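Late entry, magnesium ion complex.
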Amino acid sequence: MAQIIVNNVQKVFKTPGKDVIALKDINLEIKAGEFVCLLGPSGCGKSTLLNAVAGFALPSAGEITVEGKKITGPGPDRGMVFQEYALFPWMTVAQNIAFGLEIQKKEKAEIDLTVNQLLDLLHLNDFRDRFPKDLSGGMRQRVAIARVLALDSPIMLMDEPFGALDALTRRNLQDELLRIWNKLGKTILFVTHSIEESIYLADRIVVMTYRPGTVKRDQVVDMPRPRDPSSAAFNDLKRELGRLVMEEQQRHANDEMKLAAVD
Ligand SMILES: Nc1ncnc2c1ncn2[C@@H]1O[C@H](COP(=O)(O)OP(=O)(O)OP(=O)(O)O)[C@@H](O)[C@H]1O
Ligand SMILES: [Mg+2]
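Prediction complete; structure with ligand written out below:
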């Protein structure tokens, strides 16, 4: 059985004047250990779907289950990495990574062991006593990933985690994430609006439509890793997904033109 099952999920935001149907009839099954990207233009409901799986904002209709249990809120089986590095500025790198374990009242020796392992895994050893303000964006995002890994959730939810990074740092962290995913066997649900990023990373890419957010294409990527973005197969898929995303982008742009005309 799939680990995560999204069953006929709908999400409506009630705003003054009109209801926004952010998600409609979403059906998805994600297996344990799969790396799935949600891809689509701004406003298509990627974060809404991810937040529903996280349990931060539940669906208006339908349900999401993890290991057969309906999601009713956040839980230790799901960890979230956000785009903006959600680190505590007054804590060092090591303290930031230890924080979740301290909340869970784990033994000091166990916390130290886990923190040291994660500092190693993410090549953060030389930075353990630094504060977030003294780190580059890429380093901060490594700490954010380590913080989530500390809780050892089987599922990692990531909302455009590398969106704010420059191209080289981004590729570097994508490679790190693939290495960690390989080593630890987590399930990853990763939101992006970069077509190239989704092809580089995912086992499967779920392309979403713009308003209402539905599944436009559920695309298996069966190229071996590491993937070569200059290869013909990579570029064929990039072109094909680009066409799908552009159609939705265009609908978004038309929508905004209509709204502007009403103003
Ligand atoms: N709290 C809210 N209240 C009202 N509308 C909302 C709310 N959150 C999201 N929406 C609307 O729902 C739709 C989906 O938003 P969502 O943030 O999930 O999109 P997204 O795909 O993550 O976009 P982006 O790539 O810009 O992050 C958008 O039209 C957005 O305006
Ligand atoms: Mg979003």
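Residues 46-47 surround magnesium ion (ligand 2) (CB under 6 Å). Will revisit in the morning.
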